[in-house]
Structure formats: C-alpha cells, structure tokens
Amino acid sequence: MKHLVLLFFTCWPSLLWGQANVIELYQRSGQYYASDDFARFISTTDSLITQVRSPGLLLRMAVVQHRMGQDKIAIRYLKELSNLKACVEIDTFSAFDELKQRKGFGRIRKTFQQNCTPIHNSQLVFQLSDPKLIPEGIASHPTSGHFYIGSLAQNKVVKYHREEGEQNFTESGQDGLWSVLGMKVDPTGKELWLCSATGADPAHQDAGLFGFHLENGNLINKVLLPETTEPHLFNDLVFAGQKIILTDSDAGRIYEWVRGGQTVTELPTKTPLVYPNGIAIDLSQRFLFVADVLGIRQIDLQTKVEKKIRSKVPAHLNGIDGLYYFNRSLIAVQNAGQGRTRIVRFYLNKKMDTITKMEILQSHHPAFNLPTTGTIANGRFYYIVNSHLRNLEPDGSILRQEELEGTKIFKIDLQ
C-alpha cells in the first residue's frame, strides 16, 4: 500500500513478464511520449495496453493517435476512458482542440464533466498537529477507539484518541524502526504489527516486520530479511490464522511469517507480481486479494489457485494503494488518472472473483493530497487524506515544507 517512489500504474503481463520487464516498458513508453517519438510510443504502449486498459495509457494513446491523424482511433480511446468513470479535464488539453468538431466528441466531453463532478461522503474525524509527519499507514483498535498512524519521515508511530489526544506510541527509530508503512491491530486487540523499510541507500534497502504490545509500546518481535543487495519494500499486511502475509513491492513478491518463526518465507505466485501494494483477506481467511500495477489478483490460500479479478461493469483496477475487504466487497484507495485520487468500493460475486458493481464513495476532495491507506472500524472506513508523500525525498528530507499541514483523517459510513 505505498509508494516511497511513485510509479506509473496499469497492465497485466503474460506469464513470462516480470516486474523489471513491465517497469522498463513503462519507462520507455514515458520517454517516447515525452520526446514525441510517436511511432515507438505506440509500438511500446501496445504491449501494455492490450493487457490492461489503464486511464493513463488510454489518455496518452488518444493524444498520440490524434497527433498522427488517426482521429477515429483517438475518439475510440477517449470514449473508452470516459466509460471507465475516469476524471479527465478534457478542455485543458489543447491537443484535442481540433477534435471538438468530430462526431461523438461532445457526448464524450459531457461524460468527462460528469466524471469530474465531486462525490462527497466523507467527514473529518480528527487532524494531527505535526505537519512533517508524512504518514502512510493507519490502523484502528476495534473497541478502544484508538488510532495508530505511521510516519515515513520520522520513523515512528503516533497514537490518537478523541479523549486523550495524540502522543507517540513509539519513538523515532525505536527498536531499529525505519519508515513506517502498512499496519494493523491483530485479531486479539493486543498487538500492533507493521511493515517498515528504508530506501535512503539505493544499494542497501532493508525491510522488516515489527510487532509491538499495544499496552506499553514494547517490542514483541522484529523479523528482518537476510542481508541482500536486492531492493525490498515491505508495504502492507494481513493476518491469516497464525500467519502474517505481506507484500514486498520492490521485489515483486508476497511473503508470509508464521508466529515464532525466525524469518519470512516467500508465498509463490504462478504469475509474476508487479509492485504488489495493497492486500486484503476475506473473513474466512481463504481468499487473499493483492493489488499491483496490473490490477487485483485473488489467491485461494487453500487450493493455491490464482485468478485475475474481472469486472462485469466498466472499471479500471489499477493505481490502488490501500485495499480492504468488507461484506463481500473491496474498498480501495485509488489513483484515478491525472493525479486524481478516489475512494472506491468494488462489489464481488459469490465466488469473489468478479466485480458486479462499482461505487465511488469519495472523489475530488479539495483536501486530498495523495491519500494512501485506511482502516475499517465499526462499519466505517477511516483514511489518511493528506500524506504529502510527494514532498518526501528518498534521503528523508522534506521539500516545500510551507505546503504541509497536519494529517487529516476522514471517515465514510459503509452501508
């Protein structure tokens, strides 16, 4: 659930594609687009877009096809993009000025305007005082009313309660803690487990799983990866019986840790993952849901069968950070194109492998500054509104500090 380094979103690889291949294609696609090398852009992007129809790629393909005189193809891409309920401020694209007289463009323009109409279902719950926290992960206690917010910049966890206010749950760097990412309170309500990582030295990226007693903040255990030069970024986690399952975004893997074990072990996947991020699990703890650059994957932990989540309704499943299971649906914090973030609910069929309905719960809020993750408590979804993640440099320094404000937490009532 996080992006210490912001990536492009989208696409589903063949079995031979791996994380490095997909990211390289994205980089090349972006380079060709920026340099107006349209022929190479199309040939490269076709390799991605045939796999998953992501908003970013569809928009760029529309721009390039129009510039190459292929207006019918450009209109087709824009129509598909508008049907995905992506918000594109089409009137700001001078590249499409000549398309405005084309048949069908007016209808597409109207759909985009509807897509960009804000949907507001959120309420402010509380705001922390420190503008330099740069939060990424949040967890909640099911009964006490406590919230725990992790800091990327200060390597610590802050605790909040409406009657007690805010205080440090852990101190900066306590027990070797690095940047704090995804976290959750365990089912007993007595422990907080979190993912932590450091990317300050590109040649030596450490990652670990840390557990703390909620009663006093003392360390229960920390599980570190063996010394390696391979990049790692433990990102988010779920509980599955005596196991904790977590995503490693930079390595493109899923790991599991059994209580009492000395290290994590890889949970093999049949199809390579590309920057796995958000992770969720159903109440039976049988079906695991993993969001990566390519979409959402369902993994049956009993049979090991993997499925790409399909959708019967127009929807794109890319750009998802936080991912959560609730009443046979998935709640997602999603980048929806042009830097737009929204909170989306995907309703699932009985097999939980197909989306039957998509509902946008919140979009285009003026307070949004790269929302990242959330937590579900008592039928409400609480989420980080303003992470200011783009202001954080890999070395931990913070840019443009005058832009920062204290972390806001919003809530949405789930029906």
Figure out the total of helices.
5
Q: Could you tell me the number of beta strands?
A: 25
Q: Going across the major beta sheet, what is the strand order?
A: 18-22-21-20-19
The helix/strand series, from N terminus to C terminus, equals: HHHHHEEEEEEEEEEEEEEEEEEEEEEEEE
What Rg is obtained from the alpha carbons, in whole angstroms? 21 Å
Q: In terms of per-residue confidence, which ranges show pLDDT below 50 for 5 or more consecutive residues?
A: 1-17
Mean pLDDT: 90
Helix content: 10-25%
- Bulk shape: globular
Beta percentage is 25-35%
**What's the main sheet like?**
5 strands, mixed
Distance between the termini: 24 Å
Q: Which structural class should the secondary elements be placed in?
A: alpha+beta
